Amino acid sequence: MDILNLITSLTIMDLAWIALASWCGVFWGILGGAIPGISPSITMALVLPLTYTFDPGVAIVLLAATYIGAEYGGSIPAILINTPGTNAAAATVLDGYAMNKAGQGHKALGISLYSGIVGGFIGLCGLILFTKPLSQLALQFTPMSYFGIGILGLSVIVSLSKGSLLKGLASGCIGLMLASVGTDPVTGVSRFTFGSTDLLEGIKPIIVMVGLFAITEVINQSADPLKRFTINNAKIHFPNFKEKVLLLKSQLIGSFIGTIEGIIPGAGGTIASFLSYNEAKRWSSKPELFGCGSAEGVAAPETANNTVACTALIPVLSFGIPGSNSAAILLGGLLIHGITPGPTIFTENPDTINTLYFGLIMAIIGLYFIGRLILPVCLWIVNKPRFILISFIYLTVFTGIFSIDDSYNDILLVIVFGTIGLIFNYFKIPFLPLILGLVLGYLIESNMRRSLVLSDGSYSIFFTDKLCLLFILLGTLFITTALFRKAKS
Amino acid sequence: MNNLLCGVFLLLIAVFYYFTAISIPVSFLSDNFGPSGLPVIYSYLLSIIALIQILHGGIQIYRSGAPNIMINYKFDGSLKNPFLLLMIGYLYIFILFEVGYLVSSFLLLSTILYFLSNLKIYRILLISIIGSAAYWLIFSQLFNTRLPSGWIF
What we know:
The complex is a heterodimer of chains A (about 500) and B (about 150). Chain A is an all-alpha fold. Chain A has helices spanning about 1-10, 10-35, 40-45, 55-75, 75-80, 90-100, 105-140, 145-155, 155-160, 165-180, 205-220, 240-265, 270-285, 295-310, 315-320, 325-335, 345-350, 350-380, 385-405, 410-425, 430-455, 460-465, 465-489, and strands at about 180-185, 190. Chain A has a two-stranded antiparallel ribbon with strand order 1-2. The relative contact order of chain A is 0.19. The model of chain B has no long low-confidence stretch (mean pLDDT about 85). The chains are: A mainly alpha (about 500), B mainly alpha (about 150).
């Protein structure tokens, strides 16, 4: 009703400005998200200075729409060139790229766009309807609960380990080891940095992902550079009614997990997309297709990370707690315009909130049209001969990675991880458990040690905290089910 | 043979990581667990996995007879190009530092295209010039990224 009141109270020009801001934001976001190394937060930070002179509502819409566009844009290189544009798109690589290799890239892109729109709308509904009640749930989260979430996330490794479970576990363990690089979260002591100041902040997951996926793939493909990808259809295939029905279950799973993860500050789209992938596989009637080009395997993580793009605004608006870098930039945008987030934001700035809601609706509608315009261009590019793709992917990766921190060491790390990727390929060690371990390592260690400080070293605290216990039990259930399936197959 | 080698590879990582972990200095602010607590556990975990993997590989070899030392991983074609591309990647860092973004990007594109494509030299040069200039414009002007300056810009 509030949104309807807002729409009737604004002039056509005001509404046009909001719509324009949201579509520009989506376009810019897709562009930034699709370039590996340019994260959603960097893409948002680049438009932040432009918003100083804007009306507060329009400025926030521009930033939020950029975030939505960037979260979606990350899936494009994940599907087409085996390189996740954002951390949250890592789970999309598995089946998206497998579909592309099977000549169904146009279908995978259509599914990811459709799932992005579905996820966006469900996330937006969650944001509008449940912001107040859900924000109370976020307050219940203690360090123990975060530790539990980390363990739950790690349980996905079992189902991500194609082939040998032992090698999957080893990969996850190496990921956790890599997460220990940098400054210790409790004492501030530097670990595994070998004197390098660049490593004090730790190893960024995007560098590892780009190295393992993009560099390894490009080097593999260079052995036969005159070949072309075989995407015969240069138009994207948007799912038809029958396909939409088939994707519904995985999308509902993705949006449910995305809603819950979005309201928890710090949990983020990466965990949501991995958990959704795992659950979609568990509940699928054809789990054997996962990892070999399953449409559900693309739909679930894409729905989840686009749901998170909306529901992540819940803790920002309700408490002013940014759960990620992107949320922090959005928070900065609110503060620049004199809007203080918190429970009173809904009574003190109702117009800005309603403008944001309306802008997000326009952004998700815009995602459909802008996505459909951009994707054929991407398919056209991927249809070029391999030597052209290889040379330009190499340059894109190096430039994108350099632009994160202006660091030469980051480029070196990317190539080192590319080399490690080749070794992993030789030994048939899967990459994704390593990524999961790397993403979750810091969350697990920092919260485990904080919890132990709170309990004077007693481990019983992890079993007395109800949320933590719930997550650990869920993790155990996931592992048992996955092991049972593996044994059965 | 692959599983056995994989186990040895993992064990080497675990051992290296363990010795680095135990040399982490302990701070006065340290909690009971300490900065090396979890890393040491990770190294134990990886060692156990590696040993099981070695055992698994050993049993496989014992059952199948003579070990197969042949590389079981194949690139799509020859090994020359992948090796070359990896070397170009490592060299790029030094060239980028010395000559700046625009020239190093031109060199990167033209070198890769020269070795991998069947294009004529003038087309390679044309693609490399347009490509490096376009990337410089996109990243430097549109995304406002501070790219390394050198011979040009």
